[in-house]
Design brief:
The complex is a heterodimer of chains A (464) and B (301). Chain A has two domains: 227 residues, 2-Layer Sandwich (Gyrase A, domain 2), CATH 3.30.1360.200; 162 residues, Multidrug efflux transporter AcrB transmembrane fold (Up-down Bundle). In chain A, helix 10 runs antiparallel to helix 11 and helix 12 packs parallel to helix 14. Chain A is built from 14 helices and 15 strands. With 464 residues, chain A is an alpha+beta fold. Chain B is α+β, with helices and mostly antiparallel strands and 301 residues long. Chain B folds into two domains: 215 residues, Multidrug efflux transporter AcrB transmembrane fold; 75 residues, 2-Layer Sandwich (Alpha-Beta Plaits). Chain B has nine helices and four strands; from the N terminus they run ααβαββαβααααα. In chain B, strands 2-3-1-4 form a four-stranded antiparallel beta sheet. In chain B, helix 6 crosses helix 9. The chains are: A alpha+beta (464), B alpha+beta (301). Chains A and B meet through helix 5, strand 14, helix 10, helix 12 and helix 13 of A and helix 4, strand 4, helix 5, helix 7 and helix 8 of B. Strand 14 of chain A pairs antiparallel with strand 4 of chain B, so a sheet runs across the interface.
Chain lengths: 464, 301
């Protein structure tokens, strides 16, 4: 695309409107105290802003806050892979991740993150649960080894299965300590069989040779095959419920007794559903015990006050920069400040759009990047002043100021980008948050310092 | 103004700042947080200001549970206790015991870091700093490859890294002293601060070096020390204005930001002051020293 200098002001105006809309799209609630000028007493200010529902409906653009700003639990678990063959460790880890996912869903948390990590020969699971501040409760819930059980119905199967019945029986299951959904599946009198996860060798997704439909194949151990043969012979035509932890994951109907130790669950799965089921079954077949490597619980009030404090600090820091720039450079400072406001709005919009999880360190990174953006302006202005002192015309000085300051800005920012990518590579999640906001800030600042400031200068000084 | 002429004084000043810190680093090291050593840390919040009785209650209940206390720190209505690694059950038991003597106590934060994770963070931090230093030398050597002979672009890279190490040592040394005398801890956020300082230091040095490169290209007749002196003077206002802006922002963060990033900010403040100093008074001066040493060697031949 050819660069049209005349279009630049319109492009910047359009961009500004877009980033303002993005930043105004989400609702905001402000609560703070102001000093009442007449009575000199603190006066609470409550301001509620509804946001732009049209955009929020399209996509949630609110900031994603890290655990340190909203409170929550962060747990690093180590998966003990002893006794699990090397080749199956990766899939065992995936199973553990799935199991933990299910357990956390039990909390009803909106955005948990569960990542797996392999450090040297250590398999780890990193869990972050926003909102759950009792880390001990969280650890006791998710740190258990997965348990796979098989259930049969001892009484008569219940005929009517309405939706309300399903919820009711699930409640009953929960209250009586049975896996949720077991009564609904096998009927009024569920009984745990002697078959369990250790009898299952492996579960895998296969495809039916006739229909091509995905199905889940179970391979039992020798003793498991015998137990399974007994169970299936006793329950022909009936349903067997398979439960992981405290939740029924599948309830297949037995069509014929299965004696060979190989069973297939069919039932109109999508490939994804079949995969999911195989992973869950494997979690029971390859039980991995978990130990806690690191755990941290951050109180909600601590998070909230940190957020409040860093917001106030951020706004004040911003004001300080603007005042300082105007004191130092007068009219030029006003222009730089305007560019800086646009810069911040772009940066904040990117945080919302990507989205980037904001932590305390991340906010520090953002504020530091504002400092770097200012540095670019200072470099350019000092260079312009110098060129004017050497007797150049204003227009000439503007041009030279930018072109001569550019190598310094470019080289120094590239070196900062190198440091931030190293931080990202080696850092823990806190440090990564810092590195990402800093790197993003540096990239946007190069755009704003060069393109936005220059366009402003050309517009104002050509007319003035 | 002749800045280059007094260069030995600047080196003396740098050494005066660095040597006590280095001695402290050798004698006492850094006061490492559980991020590095592994262990547990819990913060209790009281509804009122913490008093003597609260602290002794805490100490008693920990002793009753046979848990060794590494340190206890109190600030207004909070008490932070550090211990060797605890399990969730032990933590629950402690909180219950504390709530018996004071009902209002709540646990604000509980953190346990296993020794494996701790040592990993240490090695990663060391790696990060080493890799950063090497990459920065390479980058500067590459970015300055067009510099006029007889200067070699490697010299720019190496001098920038010496200035970088200077700043890292200043910050590490001061935090070693702070750790010994004021109990200030070094945590993984500190590593972030250190790396930012390194980035900023190079950022600042490059601006001065860039000017030296430009003046070398334009000014074919001047002596090298004169070129460096001119370049420093031409970039002086910018260097001071930039670090002033950065420091003003950091001061606002220090005053209004959360307590959890306080020492992070202090580390950055020290590092940025040191970074500005070293880019003007160390990195550029070292270029002159190096050039004179090369000239003298050539003369002798």
């Amino acid at each position: 695309m050819k660069y049209h200098p005349r279009l630049a002001p319109f492009f910047i105006a359009l961009l500004t409107v877009i980033v303002i809309i993005i930043n105004l799209s989400t609702p905001a609630n402000l609560n703070f105290n102001l000093l009442n000028p007449s009575t000199l007493k603190p006066m609470p200010v409550r301001y509620s802003y509804p946001g732009i529902p049209f955009i929020t409906k399209l996509r949630d653009l609110s900031f994603r806050l890290g655990l340190d700003l909203q409170g929550g639990s962060s747990i690093t678990l180590r998966a003990n892979m002893k006794g699990i063959p090397q080749s199956e460790r990766d899939s065992a880890l995936a199973s553990v991740q799935q199991v933990i996912q299910n357990r956390i869903n039990f909390f009803g948390v909106t955005e948990p993150t569960i990542q797996t990590e392999k450090v040297n020969n250590d398999y780890r699971i990193l869990v972050e649960i926003p909102g759950v501040t009792d880390v001990n409760q969280a650890v006791s819930l998710i740190g258990k080894t997965a348990k796979l059980t098989f259930w049969e119905g001892a009484g008569s199967s219940l005929a009517t299965q309405s939706a309300s019945f399903a919820t009711e029986s699930a409640m009953l299951d929960y209250k009586s300590g049975l896996p949720i959904g077991v009564t609904g599946a096998v009927g009024g009198n569920p009984k745990e069989t002697d078959l369990n996860g250790s009898d299952l060798k492996q579960a895998a997704v296969t495809f039916d040779s006739n229909s091509g439909q995905p199905q889940v194949q179970l391979t039992f151990t020798a003793s498991g095959a015998k137990k399974f043969a007994d169970i299936t012979s006793n329950n022909v035509g009936k349903i067997i419920a398979i439960a992981l932890d405290q939740q029924v994951i599948e309830a297949p109907r037995v069509s014929t007794p299965i004696v060979g130790g190989n069973a297939v669950i069919t039932g109109g799965f999508t490939t994804q559903q079949a995969n999911q089921l195989a992973i869950q079954l494997n979690a029971g077949a390859l039980p991995v015990s978990l130990s806690v490597l690191q755990q941290q619980g951050i109180g909600a009030t601590l998070g909230k006050s940190s957020l409040q404090a860093s917001l106030v600090a951020g706004i004040l820091g911003f004001l300080v920069i603007i005042i300082f720039m105007i004191v130092l450079y007068g009219r030029l400072g006003v222009i730089a400040s305007a560019a800086l406001i646009i810069y911040s709005l772009i940066d904040l919009s990117l945080f919302r759009l990507i989205p980037i999880t904001l932590t305390l360190a991340g906010i520090a990174g953002f504020i530091l990047s504002v400092g770097i953006a200012v540095d670019a302006n200072i470099l350019i202005f000092e260079r312009m002043k110098e060129e004017i002192r050497r007797g150049r015309t204003l227009a000439n000085a503007i041009e030279l100021g930018f072109s001569r300051a550019w190598p310094s800005i470019r080289d120094s920012n590239v070196s900062s980008l190198i440091t931030s990518s190293i931080l990202f590579y080696f850092g823990t999640s806190i440090i990564r948050g810092f590195a990402v906001t800093l790197a993003l800030g540096i990239l946007v600042s190069m755009f704003s310092a060069i393109f936005v400031t220059k366009t402003f200068l050309q517009v104002f000084y050509k007319k003035g | 103004m002749n800045i280059v002429g007094k260069r030995n004084w600047y080196f003396v000043f740098s050494l005066l700042v660095i040597i006590p810190g280095v001695i402290s680093l050798f004698l006492w090291g850094l006061n490492l947080s559980i991020d590095f050593t592994g262990g547990s840390e819990m913060t209790y919040t009281y509804p009122q200001k913490v008093n003597e009785k609260n602290v002794s209650d805490i100490k008693n209940s920990f002793t009753n549970e046979k848990i060794k206390i590494i340190s206890v720190q109190e600030s207004s209505n909070q008490v932070t206790v550090r211990t060797p690694g605890l399990s969730s059950e032990q933590d629950d038991a402690l909180l219950k015991a504390l709530q018996k003597s004071d009902k209002g106590v709540t646990q604000q934060q509980f953190e346990t870091i296993g020794p494996v994770v701790g040592s990993e963070i240490t090695t990663n931090a060391l790696y990060a700093i080493l890799v950063a230093a090497v990459l920065i030398v390479l980058f500067i050597a590459w970015a300055f490859r067009g510099v006029r002979k007889p200067m070699s672009s490697w010299r720019f890279g190496i001098c920038a890294v010496i200035a970088l190490l200077h700043d890292a040592l200043v910050v590490l040394g001061i935090f070693s002293l702070l750790g010994h005398f004021a109990g200030v801890e070094v945590d993984s956020l500190f590593v972030t601060a250190l790396l930012t300082v390194i980035g900023f230091s190079v950022h600042d040095t490059i601006v001065v070096f860039d000017r030296i490169r430009e003046n070398l290209r334009r000014n074919l007749t001047s002596e090298f020390p004169q070129v460096v002196n001119d370049s420093i003077l031409q970039t002086l206002v910018r260097s001071l204005n930039t670090s002033l802006t950065a420091m003003l922002v950091l001061f606002t963060l220090l005053i209004f930001g959360g307590a959890s990033i306080r020492w992070f900010i202090v580390a950055m403040l020290i590092g940025i002051a040191s970074g500005t100093y070293s880019s003007i008074f160390n990195a550029s001066q070292l270029l002159v020293v190096w050039q004179e040493w090369v000239d003298r060697k050539n003369l002798r031949r």
